[in-house]
């Protein structure tokens, strides 16, 4: 079973910051996951929430601020003062960290609350610039955007994200044009999980920080887990 560092090494560093990504980039894990939003001046930035309130010393919506405005805030101190120099990373800066590593990159488009116009095209162009198309999976809770990505760039791997217990979600994924299923942890323990795994589609599960749940998921045959503690989980699963 593979491991993805969720929002970078976010259990031990401030989530979705360069220091969290550099920590993940040093690990012999399969991949890393991160979340993308769009600024007022159409720059792609890596952050989980729609606002900067929880993870910085500022307040406000990403969509209402320019990159230059956002770059003035401290995105590390909320976690620990030793990270006070962290700023909001652009997607370009994060891709740069991984350009020469082996890691598979899960780019989550956070367009389910605000459907950022042109986000798919902007992300795809950047992947082309970095020649990273073969090393990514693009996912979203906004399935319209997943469908758009598949239509715009069929070779790029896509995934639908979902929280619910569903019936034959792999069939739904085919409707969307998604290659893989990214499921909320407890839902895969229901019948749905077995159905999806039996379909042959990759099933990746978020967010798994407890070793006993990792064991359980490994036994039922999920392809990968997203965890905030990738180093701890890697050491545990390899032993
Ligand atoms: O992509 C997996 C997981 O990150 C989805 O949930 O809220 O942590 O972005 P969230
Ligand atoms: Mg995410």
Question: What descriptors fit this protein?
Answer:
about 240 residues; alpha/beta; TIM Barrel; eight-stranded parallel beta barrel; 9 helices; binds SN-glycerol-3-phosphate; binds magnesium ion
CATH-defined fold name: TIM Barrel
Strand percent estimate: 15-25%
Strand order of the largest sheet: 1-2-4-5-6-7-8-9
Mean pLDDT, as a whole number? Answer: 98
Q: Shape from CA axes? A: globular
Question: What is the CATH C level class, in words?
Answer: Alpha Beta
CATH superfamily: Phosphatidylinositol (PI) phosphodiesterase
The beta-strand count equals 9
Describe the largest sheet. 8 strands, parallel, barrel
**Helix-and-strand structural type:** alpha/beta
User: What is the alpha-carbon Rg in Å?
Assistant: 17 Å
Count every helix, treating DSSP H or I runs of 4 or more residues as helices.
Answer: 9
Considering DSSP H and I runs of 4 or more, what fraction of the residues is helical? 25-40%
Q: What is the CATH architecture term? A: Alpha-Beta Barrel
Gist of the model:
The protein is α/β, with parallel strands linked by helices and 239 residues long.
